[in-house]
Design brief:
- With 321 residues, the protein is mainly β.
- It folds into two domains: 1-30; 35-313, Methylamine Dehydrogenase, Chain H (7 Propeller), CATH 2.130.10.
- 9% of the residues lie in helices and 40% in strands.
- Strand 2 (45-50) and strand 3 form a beta hairpin.
- The longest helix has 28 residues, at 2-29.
- The N and C termini lie far apart (69 Å).
Length: 321
Amino acid sequence: MVTTKRRGAVLWIGAIVLGATLLVAVLLRAPWLRVFVPVSDIEHVHGLAVDPRDPRVVWVGTHAGLVRVVDGREWMRVGRTRYDMMGFTIVSGPRSMMLTSGHGGPGDRRPEPLGLEWSRNGGRTWRTMALAAEADFHALAVAPQDPAVLYGWSVAARTGLYRSRTGGRRWDVLGARGLGDVYDLAVSPRNPALVLAGTSRGLQASTDGGDSWRVMNGFSNRVTVTAVAISRADPRVMYVYAMNPSLGLLRSNDGGATWLPTGFYLGNEDAVSNLALDPGRPRVLYLATYRGDVFYSADGGVTRKPWVTQGKVTATSGGLR
């Protein structure tokens, strides 16, 4: 009798364990619960960053969440949150961190706009750091030499340039500073107070942490500059994209004293929206455009391999090796 009861209990326990295992398996296959989901479409790139620990990995902040790209072959959406990731960037260092701003997705109960959000687990989950319902950063830049220094351009109620010296926890509102519209920001790897801004009034530079600005030599204040990047491996190497047929994608090898056209111009209806450089190789860069293209270049932008064409992933390999 005891043996029969024990067998029955064992059978019940086995059935419960089996049922739970099957349930977990089914849930893990549900797309709304999976942390990594393969993608073949990219919707509106708002940020590009090369992983500081693994240059084979490129992170793409999009209109519908974060995408991780490995060698140009593997395209995975990361995390269960689908929202507009404006100004996406990465803070490198012993404890690397991702930062983003933007707007919540469907059914999102978080404040609007999101302010500044951060992730320390590769974009799987995000938490609010500051300025919830106050700032919508369309451009964010971190000082590589001092990651406590951040700059952001917000288009929310208090539009203008913001500066943080506390790693993003507290911010000073510097205002518009005569910059017009700001599309991108970059900070010198050697000097946290040296900032470049791609604006509707040319390529502007500040040497005092954003307090004052001047148009850089070679750029008219009537030329729109949409993307800016400075190499961490060699800060003399800079890239910008200017919306002018004689300019387009430009590279400087002398810290901005002179600029060399690469021959890449997208016409009047499109422009490069984001640039990302390999942290160890100044001539390896990634470009995203407003019309939904993503390119990889190994020669400083002279030639480019398409990875995404009008939002469709076309790359089968990145050509990184």
